[in-house]
Amino acid sequence: MYSALSPGCVNVRVENLSQRIAAAKNHGFAGVDIDVFEVANIVDSHGADSITQQFEEADVIACGWGLPTDWRSSDENWKRDLEALPRLAKAAAAIGCFRCATWVGPASNERPFDENLKHHIERFKPIADILGENGHRLGLEFIGPKTLRANAKYPFVHDMPGMLDMTSKIGDNVGLLLDCWHLYTSHGRASDVAKLNETDVVYVHVNDAPSGPIDELVDNVRCMPGETGVIDIAGFLDALKSIGYSGPVVPEPFKKELADLPNDAARLDLTAASMRKIFATLG
User: Fold this and answer.
1) In the prediction, which pLDDT does 256 show?
2) Digit-coded pLDDT (tens) for 113-142
3) Using one digit for the tens of pLDDT, what is the confidence trace for 219-239?
4) Helix (H) or strand (E) segment spanning residue 30
5) Which sign, positive or negative, has the C-alpha torsion 229, 230, 234, 240?
6) Structural domains counted in the chain
7) CB-facing half-sphere around the CA of 76: CA atoms within 13 A
8) DSSP 32-66
9) CA 279 to CA 10: how far, in whole Å?
């Protein structure tokens, strides 16, 4: 288990792979996510070694990539992106980056629960198959805040048990993108994480919450990891450690004050400090 960076999650702009790696290395992150399209283009033109060498020289891990498939909209878009996915999956595999993830909406105004579950399984199964053929695991993130589904016609999967049930119906290489914010806002606990298997967790996000009733929390009003202590981040990390999770832990605070800082270096400094703080709880 190691601290990793997804630049966009902390309002940091990177223009290319070299800047992405440098941002992680210079601020003490052990890993950084990749832009899989950029990686595939470089692999096609210069080979995978040109990328792996950069990561090795910086002593930084290529830790994961966002699912690039448009599975949310039309059949046409989904099928188009399915055709493009093998090339991207092969490129990520060539540089040793085997964790892919996306999020799943907690409600629908179009499909009742059972119909929506069937729809998601049908959309994700071929994606998981392509990823699995190339050695990848797929992490699906449930979205916890009640405020995001309160006005929707049909609630959908929005907690850990529900998402684990859905992933079990998709494929053996499918598990959780587990975010401590969404665990907390869905009334989950660190003790629930301790009951998981290591293979249940593909990718991890961390942050903290403002004080107030859980069911009134708003998704884009969060805090830096360990900032308020409202979320039991120490218990969360201890639970992950107890099940043998060895992957990236990525800050995703969605904090307005980060965007207000004068530059990316300041954002990275603050984020790195928060990650050192929570990892210190592991001893």
Assistant:
1) 87
2) 999 999 999 999 999 999 999 999 999 999
3) 999 999 999 999 999 999 999
4) none
5) negative
6) 1
7) 0
8) E---HHHHHHHHHHH-THHHHHHHHHHT-EE--EE
9) 18
SS3 for 87? Answer: helix
What whole-number distance in Å separates Cα of residue 99 and Cα of residue 137? 5
The DSSP element (H or E) to which 3 belongs, if any, is: strand 2-5
Can you give the residue range of the structural domain that contains 240?
A: 2-282
How far is it, in rounded angstroms, from Cα 137 to Cα 146? 28
What Cα–Cα distance (Å) separates residue 47 from each residue in 14, 52, 90, 197?
22, 9, 12, 36
The token pair that represents 177 in the structure block: 């993108």
The tokens describing 282, both together, are 């592991």
Question: Given this model, what pLDDT does residue 244 score?
Answer: 98
Nearest in space to 146 (alpha carbons), one of 156, 138, 136: 156
CATH number for the domain spanning 226: value is: 3.20.20.150
